[in-house]
Specification:
- Helices cover about 30% and strands about 25% of the residues.
- With about 325 residues, it is α/β, with parallel strands linked by helices.
- It folds into two domains: about 1-120 and about 285-325, Quinone Oxidoreductase, Chain A, domain 1 (Alpha-Beta Complex), CATH 3.90.180.10; about 140-265, NAD(P)-binding Rossmann-like Domain (Rossmann fold, 3-Layer(aba) Sandwich).
- The strands form three sheets. Strands 3, 4, 5, 6, 7, 14 and 15 form a seven-stranded mixed beta sheet that branches. Strands 10-9-8-11-12-13 form a six-stranded parallel beta sheet, with helices on both faces. The chain has a two-stranded antiparallel ribbon with strand order 1-2.
- A hairpin with an 8-residue loop joins strand 1 (about 1-10) and strand 2 (about 15-25).
- The longest helix has 21 residues, at about 115-135.
- The two termini are about 15 Å apart.
């Protein structure tokens, strides 16, 4: 069986992604073959492509995909041919028509979730679940600062955080994105290109600061984010869209109010299959109750992946991004 697949032979810019025809063997023990209908686009894909998160070369990339099981290997216990599934924790390789993947990495879709929604929601939804429920469990006494509030993770996070009863302050790059965030339920939006976001946060909170900052931007925001925290607050750096955050001296955390700092990853929080399935179940429950939505902002063709990566890195996209398999 042949599959069109993106291959990275040299890390670098988007143009380094090349389509190749690969032979796909029958799935080995514990694996299934999935034909993708939709693929999710996430910042981690750009980190793999650029070499920020190195992969053995040549490499396949793409962490999230949804589609149909078309073949199963021996000793598969949970899935059968015809099942609709989604996966969001790799191994990398979703930028493809067909692929083999461990059954343990797949999540069977409930009847009320279609492939497109699953590909848009799963990785981002599980990210928000571990951030809001496990890294810093939120309640109605908390005030949150969330950077890049109009992005795919930010939009889902806004809905989830409001469901927890917390107040949310977001940052955005322009008025259009600020309007998206407000319409999504964000309490206050700061335009970081027009305003010092630290001063704005302190104004909004009457000088008290926030309980937690969720920072997926990294280099451009991390140090200033510390100045937004109330005593005993936590800075959660869960991504680095602007580059890696600089080193932070622990004594700085003490001087700014006995602060907490963590750099969590979804892969660690959901490294056990049981944790992954619990997280996915919670995301599906939130979706079914209309507490969250996928907020699909852009749909592209998978064949146009080079241009889509450029758009993502240039901050030209909004909400969750899905790629339709057109091979």
């Amino acid at each position: 069986m042949k599959s069109k697949t993106i291959i990275i032979r040299n890390p670098g810019p988007a143009e380094n992604m090349k389509w190749e025809n690969l032979n796909i063997d029958s799935p080995s023990q514990g694996f299934v073959t999935v034909k993708h209908s939709y693929v999710g686009l996430n910042y981690i894909d750009t980190y793999h492509r650029s070499g920020l998160y190195p992969l053995p070369l040549p490499a396949t990339i793409g962490m999230e995909g949804a589609g149909e099981v078309i073949d199963t290997g021996e000793e598969t216990k949970l899935l059968k041919k015809g099942d609709k599934v989604v996966y969001a924790l790799g191994p990398p390789g979703s930028y493809s028509d067909i692929r083999n993947i461990p059954e343990s990495k797949c999540i069977k879709l409930p009847d009320y979730v279609d492939d497109k929604t699953a590909a848009a929601l799963m990785l981002k939804g599980m990210t928000v679940e571990y951030l809001a429920e496990r890294t810093f469990p939120l309640n109605n006494k908390h005030t949150v600062l969330f950077h890049a509030i109009a992005g795919g993770v930010g939009q889902i996070a806004t809905q989830w955080i409001k469901n927890k009863g917390a107040k949310i302050i977001g940052t955005a790059g322009n008025r259009e994105k600020a309007e998206i965030a407000k319409n999504n339920g964000c309490d206050e939006v700061i335009l970081y290109n027009d305003t010092n976001f630290v001063d704005a946060v302190m104004d909004i909170t009457n000088g008290e600061g926030v309980n937690v900052v969720y920072d997926g931007v990294g280099k451009a925001t991390a140090l200033k984010s510390l100045d937004c925290l109330a005593p005993l607050g936590m800075l959660v750096i869960f991504g680095n869209s602007s580059g890696n955050a600089p080193p932070i001296d622990p004594s700085l955390l003490a001087s700014k109010g006995s602060l907490f700092l963590t750099r969590p990853t979804l892969m660690t929080y959901n490294s056990k299959a049981s944790d992954m399935h619990k997280s996915a179940k919670r995301v599906f429950e939130m979706l079914k109750s209309n507490s969250i939505s996928a907020n699909i902002g852009n749909e592209y063709l998978l064949s146009d992946i080079v241009n889509v990566h450029k758009a993502l890195e240039n901050r030209e996209t909004k909400g969750s991004i899905v790629l339709k398999n057109d091979h």
